[in-house]
Specification:
Helix 4 crosses helix 7 and helix 6 (516-525) packs across helix 7. It is built from 10 helices and 43 strands. With 715 residues, the chain is of the alpha+beta class. The protein starts with a helix and ends in a 5-residue tail after the last strand. The longest helix is centred in the first third of the chain and has 21 residues, at 2-22.
Length: 715
């Protein structure tokens, strides 16, 4: 008996060591293809984390090139080389131990119609010999770069590039197509999702696999099904696949490499907030898709939001976990969502590990043509990690009495108090908001303890729809056309007053920084969160430019626009008035704290083990206000050293928490906020933690730095 127990003990130790060895590298977005954001390195632990200090700092050199620049990149580290991107999408290879530059690649040097998009990382592939490649997307092009020298591999695609407009099954050359999250490697395939426009003029979000050597398309999965494909019947319009866009896998992938299963989360179908042109359940929008990674064939799917009207697309790839239920181990996939829930599915079958109920929702709508889906799925077992409703008694108590009174007065004219309120002309407070709940940083999972760590936003957003003037009108001048077109294309982001909404900038006095040619270029190409409007006519762009630049001389010219074939489906009768947060007159969240949190969830018991705020407002702290948390973007990393590392918060700090208790052990103020996920790696036995410090979101200072931290003394 003792001998048997000893063998069992030795086996467990060996198995543990094998598991630990598996996570000593960070050569994939999210750390590994399981996307668990976990490192088994232990040099930095709960006893010495407070001693962490900068080991090296690398500045990309282009912080001032673009106003409100950002870096959302989670760097990868391969063979002591770190690969990362800059605010202007330059690709760098650095020595991971020192931060010294090895080479740099500038995609803008290709003389393409270059568009800035956010880049959350890159992908590495090798044949195990001398062929080593980096794949990443800049503008609308997939680039294949020699990882050893930073040169384009000309035998791939079209001289090293693949235009992502191609091979989507319909003409989308004038539409916005890029990718923010990196693709993933399976054998000799590079699998990639996309970011597309969220308006009515959107490309389809089909998932594609390319040959890693040639760039040729190997398979495609239609996220908007075509005739004869599963899910086609869930669209009332039989021609929806010809003109509806979105349902794109923008947040990246997770791969069960042993089973050959690709897990792909998808976004909303376009247009986000009005579904009268896309009536039906809308598969495979808002789904977790399990695909055969070799062929792209669907194995199973689950749809989290039917006929989405709330922009609650899946914000991050799922994580691969192993849980225990009724004494049995289950290999599962865990998905976090914007509306604040954790869902567990068996990896191979897609069966829910615990029951999921369909909840009847409010289907009353005043928007003509809309058909709200009557129910939405709600998981059981694990309670939500954010609030999903509030009352007038939940107004921020730290505001002046006059502001509290104003907000309560505003609420008298609002709809609020529950999820899934259909958008309408009467304002509705959406909680959780457009940015979650969970966001694109994704959770981390600790295979040692079975704990899932989720950072989240708790911010209400106000959704209001308005009528869009029909077109083309019989007669108008450029001034009239500019107002009408602004309300059609620009109001959702920049607001009715042009002062900006959410994370989108103001256009007031924009003529001090931009001229006619600049506006035409921006409308044609887009930039970061702003999609391309290359599909509208030259005259329409000029009219918009004349309005936002307040060009009096141009506004009196006659505006003439002929009807276009696409008008029937691109012209929606309603538009949202802006991405408006539910804020106080002082600019603070209108609901009571917390506004940003981290929750540790035991996936075996379903319990919330601990929860704490993430981030602070220094001015509120000085007044004695307890920690409130702030909005946060980017994810956490958990280590075998007992630590949870995360930046992400508005206040620009990076922090280390005790992963078991949630106690804060270390914090450091970054030069610009780190709206990204850290990477953990080692070089020559020395452990590092690196974070991108790009700022730019939430009206914070921009930057172009990467900072690596390590313990002092060890060379």
């Amino acid at each position: 008996m003792k001998y048997s127990l000893l063998l069992t003990f030795l086996f467990l130790i060996t198995a543990c060591k094998q598991t630990e060895k598996k996570y000593t590298t960070w050569n994939n977005y999210g750390g590994s293809k399981e996307n668990i954001h976990y490192s088994s390195l232990t040099e930095i632990d709960t006893n010495n984390a407070s001693q962490l200090q900068p080991a090296w700092i690398f500045n990309t050199g282009d912080a001032d090139t673009v106003k409100n620049s950002q870096i959302q990149c989670n760097p990868i580290i391969v063979d002591s080389t770190i690969y990362l991107t800059s605010p202007t999408l330059k690709l760098f290879a650095l020595r991971a131990g020192t931060g010294k530059k090895i080479w740099e690649f500038d995609p803008d040097s290709m003389s393409l119609n270059f568009v800035l998009n956010n880049s959350r990382g890159v992908t590495y592939w090798t044949d195990g010999k001398n062929d080593k490649r980096i794949f990443y997307v800049a503008s609308s092009y997939l680039h294949c770069i020699d990882a050893t020298n930073g040169q384009l591999i000309r035998s791939f695609g079209d001289s090293g590039l693949v235009d992502l407009h191609n091979d989507l099954g319909r003409e989308v050359q004038d539409l916005f197509v890029t990718a923010t999250s990196p693709g993933i490697i399976y054998k000799d395939l590079f699998i990639l999702g996309s970011r597309v426009d969220e308006g009515a003029a959107a490309a389809p979000g089909h998932i594609r696999a390319f040959d890693v050597r040639t760039g040729k398309l190997r398979w495609i999965f239609h996220t908007i099904p075509q005739p004869g494909e599963a899910g086609y019947e869930t669209w009332e319009d039989p021609n929806a696949y010809k003109h509806i866009g979105g349902a794109n896998s923008w947040s990246g992938f997770t791969l069960d490499e042993e089973r050959g299963i690709l897990f792909a989360p998808t976004g909303s179908a376009s247009y986000d907030f009005y579904g009268g042109k896309r009536r039906g359940q809308n598969l495979f929008a808002n789904c977790l898709l399990a695909l055969d990674a070799e062929t792209g064939k669907r194995k199973w799917h689950f749809q989290f939001i039917h006929h989405d009207l709330w922009d609650w697309d899946l914000p991050a790839p799922p994580v691969l976990v192993t849980i225990e239920k009724d004494g049995k181990k289950i290999d599962a996939v865990a998905q976090t969502t914007k509306h604040g829930m954790v869902w567990l599915f068996e990896r191979e079958s897609g069966n829910p590990v615990y029951p999921i109920n369909e909840m009847q929702i409010d289907t009353n709508t005043e928007l003509a043509g809309e058909k709200v889906w009557p129910s939405q799925p709600i998981p059981t077992f694990i309670k939500p990690f954010v609030r999903q409703s509030f009352s007038a008694n939940d107004i921020n108590p730290y505001l002046p009495d006059s502001s509290i009174a104003k907000l309560k007065k505003d609420l008298e004219g609002y709809r609020y108090g529950k999820m899934f309120l259909p958008p309408g002309k009467k304002p509705a407070v959406e909680l959780p908001g457009f940015d979650g709940g969970a966001e694109w940083g994704g959770p981390s999972y600790d295979p040692q303890t079975g704990l899932l760590y989720v950072n989240a936003n708790e911010m209400g957003w106000v959704v209001t729809m308005r009528d869009v003037a029909p077109e083309p009108p019989r007669k108008e001048n450029y001034g009239q056309a500019g107002v009408r077109l602004y309300q059609k294309y620009c109001i959702s982001c920049h607001g009715a007053d042009r002062k900006g909404t959410g994370n989108f900038p103001t256009l007031i006095n924009i003529q001090e920084r931009y001229h006619d040619a600049d506006i035409m270029s921006l409308l044609s190409a887009g930039r970061r969160m702003m999609p391309s409007f290359n599909y509208i006519t030259k005259e329409e762009k000029e009219a918009i430019g004349s309005y936002i630049l307040d060009s009096k001389k141009d506004q009196q010219k006659n505006f003439i626009r002929s009807a276009q074939p696409q008008d029937a489906y691109r012209n929606v009768p309603y538009a949202m008035t802006g991405y408006n947060k539910f804020l106080s007159p002082e600019g603070y969240p209108a609901i009571a704290p917390p506004w940003g949190t981290i929750t540790a969830i035991d996936l075996n018991s379903g319990e919330h083990v601990w929860k704490t705020t993430l981030g602070e407002y220094p001015e509120l702290k000085e007044k004695g206000v307890p920690p409130t948390g702030t909005e946060n973007y980017g994810g956490p990393v958990v280590t075998a050293g007992g630590l949870l590392f995360i930046a992400a918060s508005r206040d620009g700090m990076i922090r280390a928490f005790n992963k078991v208790s949630g106690k804060l052990l270390w914090e450091y103020e970054l030069p610009s906020p780190g709206f990204a996920t850290p990477s953990v790696y080692e070089v020559n036995g020395k452990q590092f933690l690196v974070i991108a410090c790009g700022g730019g979101k939430l009206k914070t200072r921009s930057g172009d730095a990467y900072i690596a931290f390590a313990l002092p003394g060890k060379k």
